[in-house]
Design goal:
Glutathione S-transferase Yfyf (Class Pi), Chain A, domain 2; 402 residues; alpha/beta; Rossmann fold; single chain; disordered C terminus; globular; 6-stranded antiparallel beta sheet
């Protein structure tokens, strides 16, 4: 897969950008804050409907503009598809595929596939569980777009269930001794059923992904840091103990129906505590992807080099898994070479040389490895001050502004 054309309007620092891209390696050079990362961020947003830099859409819209637009034309095994995303900071985003208006932007998932390496990847190892959950969920959504809808439904139910636990605390504590309490508990039962139904599918998909991902991570880490301890993955869920009670350590523990039964059982066990705390304590929103080196968790025990190696191994594994599905994802390397030592640079260059399309950002030419051959395009990103504020521009090869 490769991106043939990218067009931006009022996205971050770009009031306008129209860029033709080629297979192979394209490099964007520009000082920090000039807008080079905004280009690859837009492509990543199209792939995942989210940014690797911010959690909200507001900062993606250029100051003073009502909305932003991202359009990409992707070529996958000879077939071209053009996506359009209208990002609205205070309303629902809109999406279009070729000339067809879509009911939801989620229908674009899977059209553009990317794997992005960035300095923020250190948070996969050092950060909070939500970073690692997002890593899993983005891969799942790329490979099985339907499950992105399941995850969205789960998040909706979770929000409403939490609202009930907070707003009806007094009534819930009274229980069936009052009409108000009985009504609140009945409503909670409905939310429990829906939470378990959607949540079990999310947990099953994550566990199944780990089955496929684990070997790739182990091999990638061994290739980057052969002198280190072996890397392993695990999945820690709020329903693990109940699952073991129901089925033991068997393959049926991956089936959504079994996980749903375990989740309902666990919700029953923790109901009183949830009422007391006013929050949902059971479900995939409380789970974590475990990153293990040898017999110890990587978080808190890995050195700086081991942390970088594990983060790279996770992305390399993601790339290998998506490639095995039938076509290369677009590989994005955002300001990472300056952060890496020679050995890790060489590993990334080996992958970059073999990928169908690679988009690379760097602050200066010196940040790029000397053995990075076959760069087919090189763009210099500059910034200028106008009446509308500071805006990004591309410098054409001859020196003129695009």
């Amino acid at each position: 897969m490769h991106i043939r054309q990218l067009q931006l309007r009022d996205f971050r620092s770009w009031p306008e950008l129209s860029l033709d891209l080629l297979p192979g390696a394209t490099v964007f050079i520009g000082r920090n804050g000039f807008g080079k990362t905004n280009i690859v961020e837009a492509i990543g947003y199209t792939a995942h409907l989210g940014s690797h830099r911010v959690s909200q859409d507001g900062p993606l819209v250029r100051a003073g503009a009502p909305n932003a637009r991202i359009s990409t034309t992707a070529v996958n095994q000879g077939r071209e598809l053009t996506t359009h995303l209208l990002i609205k900071p205070h309303a629902a985003n809109q999406a279009q595929l070729n000339r067809t208006r879509l009911n939801s932007p989620r229908e674009l998932l899977g059209v553009v596939k990317t794997v992005l390496f960035a300095p923020e990847d250190l948070a996969l190892v050092r950060g909070e569980p939500n970073e690692r959950r997002r890593y899993l969920d983005e891969i799942i959504a790329t490979r099985q777009p339907r499950l992105a809808g399941v995850k969205a439904d789960y998040d909706r139910v979770l929000k409403q269930r939490n609202a009930l636990l907070k707003s009806a605390t007094v009534a819930l504590r009274r229980g069936y001794h009052s009409e108000e309490g009985a009504s609140a508990l009945s409503t909670l039962d409905v939310w429990d059923s829906q939470l378990a139904g959607f949540g079990s599918q999310v947990i099953a998909a994550r566990k199944q992904l780990l089955v496929e991902l684990s070997e790739h991570v182990h091999d990638a880490y061994a290739g980057i840091a052969p002198e280190s301890r072996p890397a392993k993955l695990g999945y820690r869920s709020t329903v693990d103990d109940t699952l073991r009670e129901l089925v033991g350590d068997t393959a049926t523990a991956l089936e959504p129906a079994v996980i749903e039964a375990a989740m309902l059982t666990e919700l029953g066990k923790r109901r009183q505590r949830e009422i007391e705390r006013g929050m949902s304590l059971v479900g995939p929103h409380r789970d974590d992807l475990e990153l293990i080196l040898g017999e110890q968790p990587a978080k808190g025990f890995a050195s700086h080099g081991e942390t970088w190696s594990f983060a790279l191994a996770l992305r390399l594994a993601e790339f290998s898994l998506l490639r095995a599905d039938g076509s290369d994802p677009v590989l994005i390397l955002d300001d990472v070479f300056a952060e890496l030592d020679r050995k890790r640079r060489e590993k990334l260059v080996a992958i970059a040389t073999d990928a169908e399309q690679v988009l690379i950002t760097a602050a200066v030419d010196g940040d790029l490895p000397g053995n990075l051959d076959a760069v087919v395009q090189r763009h210099r990103v500059t910034m200028t001050t106008t009446d509308a504020g500071r805006i990004s521009q591309l410098e054409a090869p001859g020196g003129a502004e695009q």
